[in-house]
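Action item from last meeting closed. Structure (230 res):
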């Protein structure tokens, strides 16, 4: 294995109290009723909702709301980013240990491939001191609307790292992550985020193309060492 590509949400950081909360509160603002965590997850499991602005807009529409996409995006960002990264983004707990990223960086080229805007992703990496360990960020701005499950972002990262798809792993927590990895020709690793049943969500990720499913991203070094030894 030459390169490890990582998703951020649900893999590096816990977004239950940030992105998921922002979706629920944004939808509630425009419809009067917040969707449950289960309803939000069900949409994620359908695929095609990697972008939480689109997810929020869809849920508003399905509930009979009439807000425009731009109105929803503005309300969402006010909650999530806040005025100067003082919103829900600042409350996200880490899911991966710094030692795990250090171990990966010693053996592999690392990149972050995320649906977040680059500015948000880079701020979060700096917040935890991970920016030197994961120096390459391919975010929303570089993907030109071709977000996961489109493999475009993964292909950009692989090209920048000089790695061929069979030499790379992509670790993500959603069906769109797994489908993007498969479409890119990478080995797909599913990570079950906190709050979801490992068995049930693991099966969902396997059905979407995951080769293996982990209950924590901290198991990645051991998994990859096993694969490298074959």
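Sequence:
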């Amino acid at each position: 294995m030459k390169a490890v590509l990582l998703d951020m949400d649900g893999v590096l950081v816990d977004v239950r109290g940030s992105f998921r909360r922002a979706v629920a509160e944004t939808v509630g603002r425009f419809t009067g009723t917040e969707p449950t965590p289960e309803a939000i997850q069900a949409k994620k499991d359908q695929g095609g909702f990697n972008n939480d602005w689109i997810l929020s807009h869809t849920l508003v529409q399905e509930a009979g709301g009439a807000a425009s996409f731009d109105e929803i995006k503005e309300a969402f960002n006010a909650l999530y980013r806040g005025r100067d990264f003082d919103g829900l983004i600042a409350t996200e707990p880490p899911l991966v240990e710094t030692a795990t990223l250090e171990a990966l960086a010693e053996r592999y080229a690392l990149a972050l491939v995320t649906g977040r805007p680059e500015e948000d992703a880079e701020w979060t990496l700096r917040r935890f001191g991970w920016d030197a360990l994961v120096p390459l960020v391919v975010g929303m701005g570089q993907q030109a609307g071709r977000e996961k499950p489109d493999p475009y972002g993964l292909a950009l990262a692989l090209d920048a790292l000089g790695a061929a798809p069979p030499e790379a792993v992509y670790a993500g927590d959603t069906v769109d992550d797994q489908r993007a990895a498969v479409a890119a020709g990478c080995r797909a690793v599913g990570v079950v985020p906190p709050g979801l049943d490992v068995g049930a969500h693991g099966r969902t990720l396997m059905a979407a193309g995951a080769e293996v499913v982990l209950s924590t991203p901290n198991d990645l070094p051991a998994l990859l060492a096993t694969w490298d030894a074959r």
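Note appended to the action item: DSSP finds ten helices and six strands in the chain.
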